[in-house]
Design a protein that fits this description.
The complex is a heterodimer of chains A (134) and B (139). With 134 residues, chain A is an all-alpha fold. Chain A has one domain (2-133). Chain A has helices at residues 2-19, 25-32, 41-59, 82-98, 102-107, 114-133; one strand at residues 37-38. Chain B is globular. Chain B has one domain. Chain B has helices at residues 8-29, 35-44, 49-70, 82-99, 105-112, 116-138; one strand at residues 2-3. Chain B has 6 helices and 1 strand. Classes of the chains: A mainly alpha (134), B mainly alpha (139). The interface between A and B is large, with 118 and 111 residues. Strand 1 of chain A pairs parallel with strand 1 (2-3) of chain B, so a sheet runs across the interface.
Amino acid sequence: MNKLVALFCGTIFGIGLVISQMVNPAKVLGFLNVFGEWDPSLAFVMIGALIISSPLFHLFKNKEKPIFSTSFSISENKEIDKRLIFGSILFGAGWGLAGLCPGPAISSIALLNISSVTFVFSMFIGFYIASKIN
Amino acid sequence: MNIVNFTPVSALTGGMLIGFSVFLFFILNGRMAGVSGIASNFLISKNNRIDNLLFLIGLILGPLIYSYFTNQKIEISITNSLFLLIGGGILVGLGTRISGGCTSGHGISGVGRFSLRSIIATITFMIVGILTVLIKNIL
């Protein structure tokens, strides 16, 4: 059942990325272009996601276990350290360079665009390097 | 500042679907949906590898299913500069794993739980993203 849920959730997530046009790097770069021609859409994507997920998380946060699994696996890490800031800076720079973050990048592979594939391949190299230096 | 190409309704609708997906993954499988975590764990960890792969396949199926049922072609505009794609990709891969999350893991799952760590990460990558675009436009 977990596997079906994973496939279903990924698919809903992917449809959300298409409807919101976040698979289009031009929309993301438009959002980051605050000092030029600004497209605020991405902020509304986050607001839309948060008005659904946030109340539901809080409603069910004291639930003992998830429906199809024996326990919740949620990060208890509360530390605000150099890694958090340094990693976020690197991520922000990469995001601003190409206009892609992990979700939209992977979804955009569906369009068989060579640029998307190049980006995703490079991102996986980044994941691999990070796993070696951790 | 000039506001252009603003699509609030489709942005909110798509965002709500994403939020719903994140909640379902939490309440059904007990996991927080962060795409950088799911993708890198698929690469480096044997734990839940099939689940992670299926989530990623779903991400790719989403646009195909949407196109199929709406008969709409999905248009995107993306750079063809290898420097931006490879440099950007490596930075995104490295940065999200060092900080432990991306736009979904920190920005939606973390902020949705009011995690201070995720709020700080989100503010940081937004500011740096904005500055990067500003610098790119000047150069």
